[in-house]
Amino acid sequence: MAAAKIHGVLACTDEAVLPVSQVFDAIRELGNEGVEKLDPLVITSVSSLSKFPVESSSVDLVVLIWKSLDFPINQMTQEVLRVLKAGGTTLIRKSSQSAVGLDDKTIPDLENKLLLAGFSEIQALKSSAIKAKKPSWKIGSSFALKKVVKSSPKVQIDFDSDLIDENSLLSEEDLKKPQLPSGDCEIGTTRKACKNCSCGRAEEEEKVLKLGLTAEQINNPKSACGSCGLGDAFRCSTCPYKGLPTFKMGEKVSISNSFLTADI
């Protein structure tokens, strides 16, 4: 901070008397030259004050020089923040008459309190002093955030090279239509027609049911008397094959489609 830019300096201390030379020494720590031309306003015994007799946002630099361990730093930092202009600087340092017992642990504590009070750019100097700045924005101010809209990445697809022809994955065997056994109905051990029978087995079974015969009696006919396959003229009155055409024993009985159809 150049000396020409310091328009107002306020120096505060918890002591009853504050030499101006200590104020100038503190300002020089900030790298300012020509501090003798400045006319700082000095307030002593600030521990007894609840408020600085200075208007808000009216000074560029506030120097706090303290001696007692009981110095009300929390109250003082709030007042310093009030009287500083936006972007103004404060410097807090020990007095040359500081009491015995002040050590380096005090510095980190002051840094935390300044941060909580609302200061920014807090820095500990080699002389055990601390400088900080009042933010350039006002506490409680708000501004709109620009929402960054991320566009989706564009994907270039070469349809001629990136896509695979599904048919090229099939072999000649895969393209062959499966052949079902003729006259068979995807039957199991029961040898019954399936639900969606298309080979005629269901129709045959329906005829067998109407005749009162079992599938075994149709597919593998047997006769105790040996005359069942010769026709009705040779069959007894209780023959189960009565009414059926002639057939050979052990061979499937053939029943025509019109066999059960009424003549009239």
Uncertain stretches: none
Broad shape = rod-shaped
Number of strands: 6
SS-derived structural category = alpha/beta
Quaternary structure annotation: single chain
Report the C-alpha radius of gyration, rounded: 56 Å
Proportion in helices: 10-25%
Average pLDDT number: 75
The proportion of residues in beta strands is: 5-15%
The N- to C-terminal Cα distance equals 125 Å
Task: Give the strand line-up of the largest sheet.
Answer: 2-1-3-4-6-5
Total DSSP helices: 6
Question: What profile does the largest beta sheet have?
Answer: 6 strands, mixed
Element-by-element helix/strand order: EHEEHEHEEHHH
Structural commentary:
The protein is built from 6 helices and 6 strands; from the N terminus they run E-H-E-E-H-E-H-E-E-H-H-H. The chain has 264 residues and is an alpha/beta fold. The protein has a 6-stranded mixed β-sheet, with helices on both faces. Helix 1 links the parallel strand 1 (9-13) and strand 2 (41-43). The longest helix is centred in the middle third of the chain and has 12 residues, at 106-117. The model has no long low-confidence stretch (mean pLDDT 75).
Short description:
This protein is of the alpha/beta class and 264 residues long.
